[in-house]
Amino acid sequence: MTLSILSVASEAVPLIKTGGLADVAGALPAAVAPHGIAMTTLIPGYPAVLAKAGKAKAIHNWDSLLGEPARLLSTKLDGQLLLILDAPGFFAREGSPYQDGTGKDWADNARRFAAFGRAAADMAGGAVKGLRFDLLHAHDWQAAMALAYLRFAPPAGGKAVPGVMTIHNMAFQGWYPASLFPQLQLPRTAWSIDGVESYGGVGFLKAGMESAHVITTVSPSYAAEIRQAEFGMGLEGLVASRGDRVIGILNGIDAALWNPETDPDLPEPFSVKTLARRRANKRALEAEFGLEPGDGPLFTVISRLTWQKGMDVLLEVLDHLVGLGGRLVLLGSGDAEMEAGFLDAAARHPGKIGVRIGYDEALSHRMQGGGDAILIPSRFEPCGLTQLYGLAYGCVPVVARTGGLADTVIDANIAALSAGVATGVQANGVHYHALASAISRTIALYRNRSAWQRLQKNGMKADFSWGASGLAYANLYASLVKEAV
Ligand code: ADP
Ligand code: GLC
Question: What spacing in Å lies between the alpha carbon of 381 and ligand 2's midpoint?
Fold first, then answer.
């Protein structure tokens, strides 16, 4: 029997992306399809989404969705059904999905994403003619209220379907003051400690976690970490109380988009058998960033420039990196102070450090295909995708030992090197000495050509496709649907 799943996400490749959530939401339908799952994705109708979706058919109207008129548009993307919530009062604005052009969160984000959740609950609950779903899968706080609406305010005559809440990042919870509650059009019973109330206000992610039948996160290590205060960000008690209903399913990578052999963005495509061709990509990257050639490794960073990603500590170790003969190319945007810090480092080390502030998908591919190593010193990392792309592209990951980074990179310690299984370098903490020593180790490894090639080849041969994780999600859906009947 084919199960019909509604996947609800605030971003999805190739329509709109600000981070890894989009990669995952975009890849999931094809990942579960081979296992008898028909997945439909619901996404907000931002201008970029409406423009890329092309011809779409209106299949439902809301006169007032939390105060704004809205319609549901239906189209197909890569053979899968895609639904778009076209609510101009909420989504027809330029800027990022969550912030205005100055980087400030939209003042009405709570209402925008509550409405998104309300629409998803109507759809999963059977209120939209022609749509039928067996389960609702919500991603992150922006989609989480869908589960709360399904539980506390299902559509009249609606069907109760089970729900899965996936946490891609516990640091973003969608927390709002209690004064929001009356605007949500939820019954009073929803205002409780096991409902939407969270620390005296309304917690979107918390409400989703309370209302979901199973909570998943995107790596086994992070699933364990969020039981502790350091990573649980106030919700560790709730996570612990859900016991074995909190599971970690590792993200995969979409080989249709991330394959060095077929990547149209690479000047010189290559594979594990033609690794020598990579050199041309490195030369092109050096030229693009105006770097001098050198015999040390070319490090890359492709990241949001934030505290989570440890970018403040990376700034401190750049002189050390250059002092040992390393060079760096960085692509990212985020905190204004960090952006300024990296631009300053580039000015201090001309020809050795190149910095691009901004977001550039094609350049990110060229950096994975031309850099020697990718630096990811995150303080916490639910899964992380850039280390997986690095592995696939022979761009050796140098990571902090946390969350999904710990689960996917095998540190080049003596045991792993002698067994021939290492794929990268893990830093033991996110502070100056841990990172400086990881960089020193990486540069020493790089100078041993055969050891370095081994690292590259091991990573390229490792399987981080969606195969196993697609099956894990499919099995989870099937077990919850079975449990519900
Ligand atoms: P997160 O979602 O926490 O930012 P992930 O590693 O899961 O971290 O995903 C980040 C995604 O965004 C990757 O696909 C990465 O290549 C991409 N990315 C991050 N910053 C940039 C940038 N400045 N330009 C292009 N792509 C970027
Ligand atoms: C979040 C996390 C990242 C994860 C991504 C996709 O943005 O920060 O670690 O890879 O979601 O699940």
Answer: 7
